[in-house]
Amino acid sequence: MQREELMAETYPVLQSAESHALIDKAKYEKWYKESVENPDKFWGKHGKRIEWFKPYTKVKNTSFTGKVSIKWFEDGQTNVSYNCIDRHLENHADRVAIIWEGDDPSLDRKITYRELHEHVCRFANVLKKYGVKKGDRVTIYMPMVPEAAYAMLACTRIGAVHSVVFGGFSPDALGGRIVDCESTFVITCDEGLRGGKSVPLKANVDKAIDIAARHHVHVKSVLVVRRTGTDVGWASGRDFWYHDEAGTVAADCPPEPMNAEDPLFILYTSGSTGKPKGVLHTTGGYLVYVSMTHQYVFDYHDGDIYWCTADVGWVTGHSYIVYGPLANRATTLMFEGVPNYPDQGRFWDVIDKHKVDIFYTAPTAIRALMGAGDDFVKRSSRSSLRLLGSVGEPINPEAWEWYYNVVGDARCPIVDTWWQTETGGHMIAPLPGATDLKPGAATTPFFGVKPQLVDNEGKVLEGAADGNLVIADSWPGQMRTVYGDHERFIQTYFSTYKGKYFTGDGCRRDEDGYYWITGRVDDVLNVSGHRLGTAEVESALVSHSLVSEAAVVGFPHSIKGQGIYCYVTLMAGHEGTDTLRQELVKHVRAEIGPIASPDKIQFTPGLPKTRSGKIMRRILRKIAEDDFGALGDTSTLADPAVVDDLIANRQNKE
Ligand code: WTA
AMP-binding enzyme C-terminal domain: which residues (predicted)? Predict the structure, then answer.
């Protein structure tokens, strides 16, 4: 089938989903209506899904204008780790909380809620022993081991604010994040292990600490979890082994009562300009929202085995490996490895091994595994699977079909979940028993979410339309500010379209009211589901001594979704060679991390600029897409001849 035909298909709610589901069509309509017409009543009721030490009397107190202020359940008190662990102990202490599946298929571990309680308490007491207090920022730079979850939960237990940095980021990127939130306590591992290869996490931390010190942020303590047992550099008095410390502290640690609006975590994410922003989430609203979306979007039933393949370094890992599932007393699977190790059947083998009911992954992984052929899938039974999920980027209908028919044997609904680091949890997604599916559509809004499409002037578009996606009112999981820079929060999200939260995404709404995300409309790239600002890659490139100027754009890539295309102008007198290309790729990897590796580098004597000096990215995008037939108006360029040279030397010829 052609793409258009696939997109025109509708997959009615499956009978199996319908008979089983928590929400059906009528209930969705009713609840949605109440959630947007009377948010105080709706969330006042659903806020009680978590336990409060002190009940809230106020529910919603939010404003998207002026200084922008977002508060939910503001006079309530609770604790996240208490909700994710302690409250399950009375009746379900022996239920498995975390199934850990190692990189090596022969390694796995099961941690019950009782065990989780002890681990997290000890971890929290070690943090306290080293002087970590409520409100302090703790940087976590860990691979996918249970200790990463213990560390996060331990922070929440004592009211410290964690900043998890993805283990694939470079020492520079890590150092910058340590500096931005002035974090003086770092938790890491000796090494990580992915696809049989080790990642030098502790060595990277050492470098990052030196970088931070140059910016006057001095890390006082590094807590190191042993994973591979390799020798690592050691600063005595600063570095401590977790296994030495855990036995020296008590196995119980009372959870700190936290106000609903106390900071919970900071997570850095890329925007269209400048360095990554510290997205700040707070305690009460976030937990209510992630637990509620986890339950209804995944149609989670008590006892289900749930697996999200993301890394805890991204928001998906925060909300849907750790906080949402554990708040719901789920068994959450944490996978240390990669989809193609030891071979391309690993995901499907793990599903059989642990009898996974709900499986949540990214389109980039689906496309890569689809390319490996069906045999890897067919050798597994996948009979335990009931539901599939997708996140991170638009899923192309071809990949959707394969996921549905081959992986899910046409028995499992696919929930395509659109959301962002900023939104905390799912925003637009099907509900398994309530929503008919269309391949490639994120479908309809979750409870309390008011999406709108606007044109470039901010005019609200009605009915079937194509426009910029904004959200008209607040929901409990929304970010509260950019850490340390509220003005940037207002500028980035609420100034483009006054009084509305701007998502940065383009979107189409069809005649059935379904939302189809078309991708970013700003200068943010989505490479293998990872967000990356073009400005970040540009600044990494120009930090190389031979580079004078750089402009970076995305281009369609069959596996990654988007690839990274770099236009580079060199310092006078230097030649663009293949060796230099390789050197620049290495340089960007060192500055940001492997996820930012340029796919194409084109050397050019100049960039297309307007007479006022603005780079015309539209032209660069077209050339990178090898679609330069319709470049549009180039008459405003300072030097139109630049374009001919760019076309002649393009790196992406058909
Ligand atoms: C994109 C990841 C289409 C989108 C949870 C968004 C998606 C950005 C989808 C946020 C989806 C995420 N369909 N696009 N189901 N999910 N996106 O902050 O462009 O890493 O703005 O959060 O990913 O990426 P982030």
Answer: 536-614
Say if residues 436 and 507 touch (Cβ distance below 8 Å). Answer: no
The verdict on pTM exceeding 0.90 is: yes
Checking phi first, is residue 593 left (phi over 0); if not, alpha (psi -120 to 50) or beta?
Answer: left
Q: What are the tens digits of pLDDT across the range 633-649?
A: 778 888 888 899 999 99
Residue 281 contacts by C-beta under 8 Å, 6 or more apart in sequence?
263, 264, 265, 266, 267, 424, 477, 479, 480
Q: Closest Cα to residue 378, out of 406, 416, 357?
A: 406
Question: Options 3.40.640.10, 3.40.50.720, 3.30.300.30, 3.40.50.12780; which CATH number does 15-508 get?
Answer: 3.40.50.12780
pLDDT digits 0-9 by tens, 531-583: 999 999 999 999 999 999 999 999 999 999 999 999 999 999 999 999 999 99
Which of 360, 361, 393 best tests ligand 1's pocket when mutated (most atoms within 8 Å of CB)? 393
What lies within 8 Å, CB to CB, of 153 at 6+ separation is 80, 81, 84, 85, 116, 120, 123, 322, 326
Domain ranges of the chain: 15-508, 528-649
Alpha-carbon distance of 529 to 336, in angstroms, equals 18
pLDDT band for position 4 (cuts 50, 70, 90): confident
Tell how far the Cα of 530 is from the centroid of ligand 1, in angstroms: 9
Q: Give dist(CA 477, CA 453) in Å, integer.
A: 21
State the pLDDT at residue 35.
Answer: 98
Query: Is the separation of the CB atoms in 630 and 595 below 8 Å?
Result: no
Which single residue is written with the structure tokens 């970076």? Answer: 552
Residues 12, 417: Cα–Cα separation, whole Å: 18
CATH homologous superfamily of 528-649: ANL, C-terminal domain (3.30.300.30)
Question: Is the CB of residue 224 less than 8 Å from the CB of residue 256?
Answer: no
Ligand 1 contacts (CB < 6 A) are: 269, 314-316, 390-394, 416-421, 442, 503-505, 517, 519-520, 526, 531
Residues in binding site for ATP: 392-394, 416-421, 505, 520, 531
DSSP 474-534: --TT---EETT-HHHHHHHHHTTTTTSEEEEEEEEE-TT--EEEEEESSSEEEETTEEEEH
